[in-house]
Specification:
This protein has seven helices and six strands, in the order ααααβββαββαβα. By secondary structure, the protein is an alpha+beta fold. Strand 2 and strand 3 form a beta hairpin. This is Protein lin-7 homolog B.
């Protein structure tokens, strides 16, 4: 059963290939049919498919990628309760850089620092300027529907790049004053 569990972690194309090979082995008569059929049933089971999907999702999340999700927030006078950074002018996606403690986004849950903002009320902000996203968020009436994807590693890399640029600017300013 140890090998069987390992097979469950193979990607879908690998599993399809294994199933094809099992069909060939079954036709050749080299292995007992009941064992081949049992292995085939496991590989084609909903359980094994769920494990493959979860493994792919976990790996994607560990690499900084996740499936998009929808977060709906009520628009109140106190604002939406989060800050964004990035945009086309900075050659980066737009990210949720901060969820304000006690703010609307914090109370509603569902939105977190590191979420990439993909759309606002059905309007894509991918590849857009920072100001366009701000305008869409401000223009929302009643509630705002956000499509986001959690990609914290990309945000961390972007923040590190911005910090390097800030440090270089500070050093440049210090040397120009000297």
């Amino acid at each position: 059963t140890g090998n069987l569990c390992l097979l469950c972690f193979l990607c879908v194309s690998d599993v399809c290939r294994v199933i094809e090979l099992l069909d060939r082995l079954q036709r050749s008569g080299e292995l007992p049919p009941p064992k081949l059929q049992a292995l085939q049933r496991v590989l084609q089971s909903k359980f094994c498919a769920a494990i493959r999907e979860a493994t792919v999702a976990a790996f994607a999340a560990s690499e900084g990628h996740a499936h998009p999700r929808v977060v709906e927030l009520p628009k109140t006078e106190e604002g939406l309760g989060f800050n964004i950074m990035g945009g086309k002018e900075q050659n980066s996606p737009i990210y949720i850089s901060r969820v304000i403690p006690g703010g609307v986004a914090d109370r509603q849950g569902g939105l977190k620092r590191g979420d990439q903002l993909l759309s606002v009320n059905g309007v894509s902000v991918e590849g857009e300027h920072h100001e366009k996203a701000v305008e869409l968020l401000k223009a929302a009436q009643g509630s705002v529907k956000l499509v986001v994807r959690y990609t914290p590693k990309v945000l961390e890399e972007m923040e590190a790049r911005f910090e390097k640029m800030r440090s270089a600017r500070r050093r440049q300013q210090q040397t120009s004053y000297s």
